Model the fold of this input.
Amino acid sequence: MNGAQTLVATLAGQGVEICFANPGTSEMHFLAALDGAPLRAVPCLFEGVATGAADGWYRMRDHPAATLLHLGPGLANGLANIHNARRASSAMVNIVGEHALSHLKYDPPLASDLEGLARPLSHFLRRSASAVDIAWDTAAAVRAAAAHPGRIATLILPGDTAWAEAPPAALPAFAPTPLKTPDPARIQAIARVLRAGEPAMLILANKATRGRALALAGRVAAAGCRLGSQFFTARIERGAGRTPLERIPYAVDQAIAFLAPIRHLITLETTEPVAFFAYPGKPSQLKAPGTLVHTLAAPDEDSAQALDMLLEALGPSASPPLVQPRLETPPPTGALTPLSIAQALAAAIPEGCIVVDESLTTGRETMGHTMGAKPHDLINNMGGSIGYATPLATGAALAAPGRRVFCLVGDGSAMYTIQSLWTQAREGLDITTLIFANNQYAILKAECANMGAGSPGPQAMNLIDIARPAIEWCAMAKSMGVPAHSVTTAEALHQALANSCREPGPCLIEVKLA
Amino acid sequence: MNGAQTLVATLAGQGVEICFANPGTSEMHFLAALDGAPLRAVPCLFEGVATGAADGWYRMRDHPAATLLHLGPGLANGLANIHNARRASSAMVNIVGEHALSHLKYDPPLASDLEGLARPLSHFLRRSASAVDIAWDTAAAVRAAAAHPGRIATLILPGDTAWAEAPPAALPAFAPTPLKTPDPARIQAIARVLRAGEPAMLILANKATRGRALALAGRVAAAGCRLGSQFFTARIERGAGRTPLERIPYAVDQAIAFLAPIRHLITLETTEPVAFFAYPGKPSQLKAPGTLVHTLAAPDEDSAQALDMLLEALGPSASPPLVQPRLETPPPTGALTPLSIAQALAAAIPEGCIVVDESLTTGRETMGHTMGAKPHDLINNMGGSIGYATPLATGAALAAPGRRVFCLVGDGSAMYTIQSLWTQAREGLDITTLIFANNQYAILKAECANMGAGSPGPQAMNLIDIARPAIEWCAMAKSMGVPAHSVTTAEALHQALANSCREPGPCLIEVKLA
Done:
């Protein structure tokens, strides 16, 4: 057995099922070790696809995927989506190939400061010193990553440790780290706040926005507390029959107005809402002055347990839990607008589907219209590095076979990591990608004014308008083996969405905006 | 005047002519400042295009371009091509937008350790502390970058320093840093070595492979010294009438055999040749045991001056300088092979063109056949992070209008930064991209065996073969506004290359390999 074989065996032994890979010469022993091993390897044509897919996998599975990256530049290409995953509390284990130790002193072209590149975004960072260490290092990496909240683990694998002999290691099987229990005194204080009846909102995030925690939050709402979410959430179980959450708006003025009546913000696995960007003369904090912030569950605590304790402290409620009713949306007709797009989605999406939302300007104001659609999961970009949606959808589809993924993405955003389409075709994934083609970085046009930088002049517009040439989305999709067509009306979009659920495999719908 | 306006004015004042940009909300004041400023801004759909294009610009101009990147993830997306530029001694000035200082304490989603991400690959790294500092910081960044050898400068621009008032700064105009003079005693020692007549090779690199230095090297060759280059060189002036350099092979065994007769390696702006990767049981150093290495010009010294001094010390030579004769290559016919591809190039490329080579397995053994073609510049990837060719060609074409760029790239490599095609179409650049479509990471198939990892099994091959689906290159190019067609014979390739020189603007030729 060599080091690479121990690594692969240990990953599999610790419950890692999949590796998103873009290997190079220094990772050849890892590739050889895959043969016959119970670890699925998925090829990616760019490293940002690999790390974004690992994020998507974790969001649906709650256990890390691995990535395989080639030295410093391979890691660097994956960093933006590692940033997004880190902000989403998604776990991943990045295996980064490195030169053999004996070779590094010659400073060959691909050498770089791997620890330096990995450190800013890694919670766990280790360089395996020998083949014998690899199994223990790998198990430590998986354990560190898989704790709650999920973390980024990066393991550097020098070539000589990969190819040297290593004894099989007798490692304990993976056991999840128990969640931390919230402080009962803190819960009692929050119960007193709610009993006092001042306007309060529970803000749910991360693992609190699904499963038992979300259902329990519906009972807290019955006790008179509003339920909210940040504008972006890692994954929300949403739609008819689920506990509905009010979304804090993205725009600073709207968010401030939304939060103005609230006197108490009670947080579950998140912090108080802050503006995404700073704008001249506008505050960073969105809550009204004097609003108190109470932590019901810290990011590493057990939200469901905190909610159990809170409900126990509040005592029985006369009202039933808050539940989202099914709202039938008639299929829209006419022009494609943010509203008709949201209506088409609301009407078309099937039960159990996954919506990955990077629609930015097209979906920002209107995604609320899908609230009463059939039950689905909604996934957002937590780190703000755009281009996350197509790789994330790729990983989510692999993690949740049988559940169609709808990937909503602006044309500007889609171009960052468009290579994802190839992996979607390769693996035959059930993903419907919607490209909102407005031929501009529309968000920047608005942000220029928000920033007090005025209307963009010709040079600035040259960097915002991406219409010359307009990207031909059907040709783009076809080039990577994904069938595609364009729609120009709301009825055509609705029909295309519905049709996409009938055919297995990926497809792309270009939503042509005026 | 605000901080962003000072920044743009100072860049232009220090001789920076162009900025490759992928901006976001935090860079809106920079965009506004561009209007009316003598700084050309070129939009890129991905940051790796911006940094690779800046590298290409420097290779042809010897003065830095700027890039505009959006916070940590924007910088991260540009790092792989910054790595390549750093290894090529290319200068660039990266402007990285950052949150306002007042906003950072709230740890908003896009916040990250910018200095941590930039430090491993930046020679100069500074965060502007106030609007007043920006002009001085910018001038310092350009000065640090533009020294010889070129360096990576990264300037972090917090939003509030961009939008705050700043007085105009009275800065001295840019003046290049004088090159360092080599130590005369060292030169005398090298002259003694050459006079002794033991087998010697001068290895030229960086700025020594062009202009006066290259011509002077031809006279050293006349004194009985072989002339060589590393396998990869930042830019070589090459072809008929230029001083020819023998290329040290890439493969370890071939390189060792090539260097075996040499007793003295004399370096100009480089170090002794080392293997690109370490392989089990093979050496990292390629020179024969006992070979002595002599530094004629260190990377920061003046090669032309060193060669002048050496020629002075050697005295007049009876032989004429070494010059590459023109070798007419008849246009090839028949199957597309590495040889016929090189012959088609040799026959078709016009005088003064630029060849950006990332052909890897397709061109590795055969690029020597273009040695007697019409005079041209040859550019290689110095850092080994693949996907450099399409953005580099983009920057080179902008830097050298009127000179067609031939971008030779494997299909696997091309997919890393394929968004370059869009910028090529946008700017109407005279670039002929050749995609060598073998539908695999062919280099890895060979490297698996070289690494002693045996023949790739089915799981390993799954990560090497990219044929399912095969990328449709004509559709890919068309999707981004670049006309394209496929060729399957050597005569069709030759014709397509020749045709591409007649039509202005970009085109793509898919070279279909069996």
Observations:
- The domain at 3-163 of chain A is CATH 3.40.50.970 (Rossmann fold).
- Chain A has 20 helices and 18 strands.
